[in-house]
């Protein structure tokens, strides 16, 4: 296979997006490495990859690293052509102290970038978030693009702040100390799609399991963009390979936005077998529609995401299958 000589490191292989990214790289013949906080979690990654159809693990290596210390990062990146920096804390609830998220997000990204620069890696693809794009402008029908930034001078939830601080620090590092290392950034909206091996993340736990287990009774007033985890993994590979992607950020979203109410209605219509016990969600106030553009990713990277309905139904099916 043509990619056999190319080595890619994915940070955070235990995560929902991390494991899908490892899967796609292996499927395409790359030499793959992944980092995890404890090697004892290796088996969960293998189980998920087996569920994704992988049976030969000779091209996959594991490294124990933590975003909060320097150990092993140099070993993990040595000899890599590309690095996908996916790992970052994403809890379902914000901690009391925002630094629990900001420090690993920012310092972890800088550790990975420094190690990549020193090892002569060609390009890092950083998983940022729509959190770093769209949390400061509150205009109805505003269309968010990659030119927008969440304003750090406003009150922000810890996770939103951690992603914005980490992405800003990464661009600054590349500009001042990058020594030719290339950076591309992906800014996904809410990531859904299948949870292979039962590996979910806060987005699925809140919006999919929360609705399916009937715990959620009210729908928040905001709408969210939706994107399938398989398409987010794919856009990382496209950003790795595209000459035009260096120095650019790309919003990753399927078409349109949805409220939790829309998600619950979709599940009730398309998956009545899971939803007979769910009450109608009561909207709290008027829903506030923000649009998010995926035009840049589609035109520059030729990226074609699945629909938001397909992503959400795949999540619902996999959550139910892993119960
Ligand atoms: P996830 O399943 O919670 O994955 C987070 C990953 O980060 C896990 O592998 C976790 O490792 C790792 N991590 C957290 N703290 C760490 C630390 N101190 N040291 C080393 N690793 C650490 O969530 P996900 O959805 O896949 O998130 C992956 C990336 O996508 C994150 O950068 C997130 O901000 C971004 N993102 C997610 C969404 C979404 O809706 N899911 C949307 C936009 C952007 P453990 O397994 O050891 O905890």
TrEMBL record:
Cited InterPro entries: Epimerase_deHydtase (IPR001509), NAD(P)-bd_dom_sf (IPR036291), NAD(P)_dehydrat-like (IPR050425)
Note the CDD domains from the entry: AR_SDR_e
Under the GO molecular function aspect, what terms does this record hold? oxidoreductase activity, acting on the CH-OH group of donors, NAD or NADP as acceptor
Keywords noted in UniProt: Oxidoreductase
Q: Does the keyword Iron apply?
A: no
* Boundaries of every NAD-dependent epimerase/dehydratase domain copy: 8-246
Keyword 4Fe-4S among UniProt keywords: no
Q: Which family does it belong to?
A: Belongs to the NAD(P)-dependent epimerase/dehydratase family. Dihydroflavonol-4-reductase subfamily.
Q: Tell me the protein's name.
A: Nucleoside-diphosphate-sugar epimerase
Q: Which organism is it from?
A: Chryseobacterium takakiae
């Amino acid at each position: 296979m043509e990619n056999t000589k190319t080595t890619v490191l994915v940070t955070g292989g235990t995560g929902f997006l991390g494991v899908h990214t490892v899967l796609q790289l292996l499927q395409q013949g790359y030499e793959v490495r992944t980092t995890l906080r404890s090697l004892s979690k290796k088996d969960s990654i293998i189980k998920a990859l087996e569920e994704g159809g992988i049976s030969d693990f000779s091209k996959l290596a594991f490294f124990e690293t933590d975003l909060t210390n320097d150990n092993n990062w140099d070993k993990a990146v040595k000899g890599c052509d590309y690095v996908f920096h996916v790992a970052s804390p994403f809890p379902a609830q914000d901690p009391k102290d925002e630094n629990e998220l900001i420090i690993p997000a920012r310092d972890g990204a800088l550790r990975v970038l420094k190690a990549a620069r020193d090892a002569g890696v060609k390009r890092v693809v950083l998983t940022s978030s729509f959190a770093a794009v769209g949390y400061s402008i509150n205009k109805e029908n505003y269309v968010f693009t990659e030119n927008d930034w969440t304003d750090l001078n406003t009150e922000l939830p810890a996770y939103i702040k951690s992603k914005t601080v980490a992405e800003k620090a990464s661009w600054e590092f590349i500009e001042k100390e990058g020594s030719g290392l290339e950076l591309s950034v992906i800014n996904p909206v809410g990531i859904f799609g299948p949870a292979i091996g039962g590996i979910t993340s806060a987005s699925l736990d809140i919006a999919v399991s929360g609705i399916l287990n009937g715990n959620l009774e009210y729908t928040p007033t905001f709408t969210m963009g939706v994107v399938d985890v398989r398409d987010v993994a794919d856009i990382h590979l496209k950003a790795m390979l595209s000459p035009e992607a260096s120095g650019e950020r790309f919003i990753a979203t399927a078409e349109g936005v949805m409220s939790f109410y829309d998600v619950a209605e979709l599940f009730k219509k398309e998956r009545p077998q899971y939803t007979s016990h769910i009450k109608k969600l009561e909207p709290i106030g008027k829903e506030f529609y923000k649009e998010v553009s995926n035009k840049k990713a589609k035109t520059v990277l030729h990226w074609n995401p699945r629909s938001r309905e397909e992503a959400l139904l795949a999540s619902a099916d996999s959550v139910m299958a892993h119960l």
